[in-house]
Amino acid sequence: MDEKVKVTDTEQTDKKVNEDTTLKEKLVEAECMEADMPEQSEEQDGTGAEETTSYLPLAADQLDLAKQYKQMMLFYEAGIRQLTTKLQILNREFEQSNDRNPIENIKSRIKSAESIAKKMKRKGLPMTLSCLTNNIYDIAGIRVICPFITDVYEVARMLLSQTDVELVQVKDYIREPKENGYRSLHLIVKINVFFSDGMRQVPVEVQMRTIAMNFWASTEHQLRYKKDKVITSEMHARLKKCADIMADADYQMQKLAEEIHF
Known about the structure:
Elements: E1 5-8, H1 14-19, H2 21-34, H3 65-97, E2 105-110, H4 113-122, H5 129-135, E3 140-146, H6 149-160, E4 165-172, E5 185-195, E6 198-210, H7 211-224, H8 233-259
Parallel strand pairs: 3-6
Antiparallel strand pairs: 1-2, 2-3, 4-5, 5-6
Helix pairs in contact: 7-8
């Protein structure tokens, strides 16, 4: 995630996932919704995207990043604050009323104007605000770090059970990791934010992962995006092996937690 701002300080067992019926129902609902939505995966580019009703108010349709970036960021910052507050409330509640806390850390960021422009170009999308707000859902991002795999799904369930949080899309890279070994639960949600002229729904990406998953993802990102170095296929294989080691450690820690009755 770009421009991280700190707010506060292999695999989950099928049995644990299946027991979470509330989250499962929401995930199924999201998968049905995805059939009518543009794909948001980083690896796939969309062209000829159809512009529909915007989530956010638009000052002018033709995108002028230098002029309109600050105005646009106001809405995304508001969405981040709204969701972050919800997570902080859960965090404080667990600190005071439970033996342990399923939330280790919460961070947030907003994509830079340069990153937004590059992604629009890569996807072949016209540079308009309406197209931006309807096709790029990860401009506002929150990352939640949890101690254990089951914590990831439990915190996701608690967040999605709130009536003003609408699940738009889910990518579960914990149950189905990416080829390079990346693991995380990605949720695209819409949060209700009230402004002077009324309520707006702001899209926010929420990445949820364990401490081990975050360690690998953060260090892998620094290694892979070293601009003056080429990552060879042998290096890719070693990075994948490290991801598998971390995933196995996560699984073993999860089993220990279950034995200790966490």
